[in-house]
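ok here's Endolytic peptidoglycan transglycosylase RlpA, seq below lol
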Amino acid sequence: MFRSLARNVMTNLLTVYRRYGCRRAGWDYLTPIIKSILLLAALSVAGCGLLSKQDGPPRFRRLNPDDIQDAVPRVEPKSRYGNPPSYVVFGKRYHVRSSSVGYVKRGIASWYGRKFHGRRTSNGETYDMYAMTAAHRSLPLPTYVQVTNLDNRRRAIVRVNDRGPFHSQRIIDLSYAAAVKLGVARTGTARVEVRAIDPRRWKKPWRAEHPVPAREEHPNLYVQVGAFTSRSSAERLQARLRATVNDPVRITATPGLEHALYRVRLGPFIDAEYANRLSEKLAGLGFGDLQLHTISEIVE
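and the structure came out like this:
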């Protein structure tokens, strides 16, 4: 939008300038306006610009860390893009390593999610926050690394296909899936060790054909659509939902200091993917404040 507006304004002003000269075009007077428009256009393009949406986890879908599979190292050629000898970001020059062999470093890991989901990575691929990938300032693209969370000893293998993080205290930016697997998604950052993997020498660890689940939990999953201090408001929303979907709609009352809170929920569901799709459908129909909840017991 901003780029199109800037182009149109510039085209019209240059036409007037060519026909009538600087004075008739009001060039000196309009220069600040042009600069402002171009600045807005630049901000709309910038991945980390002021006009960007706030980053974070996906709005509805949640991942189970025990179900997330590591990236599988394989021999790949260097990417055509993202591997210059050096590059400059925010006035600082970074040098790309010619090889990842022997790379081991400890520092702080962060992660990035839905704000960049679907955008282009430094090596020309599309960022998928559900894939086991990461961003690194100097390792050649792609590089496979093993990341160990030094606080909880969880480990994950990720494929580096992007550049970043451009923060002096951080050494790697994890995808959302990798952050969940390592237990970093909730804390935002964590102390980690990053160790490069040589795919030619890497051996896939043996796993049982039917591994035992790490957790024996069978939670009930609910989609909360609204919460009210008035039961009549909750009942009106319940009626709207029953006219829209065929799933059970419940109203639960939670005691409060002054008034009870009446929560309107759909469920329970066993299939998390179905709950996610239902949430997206309801959001598209204009239902707001949707939340996924795991509740062991609901009393009406």
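fwiw The two ends are 49 Å apart (CA to CA). kinda neat tbh
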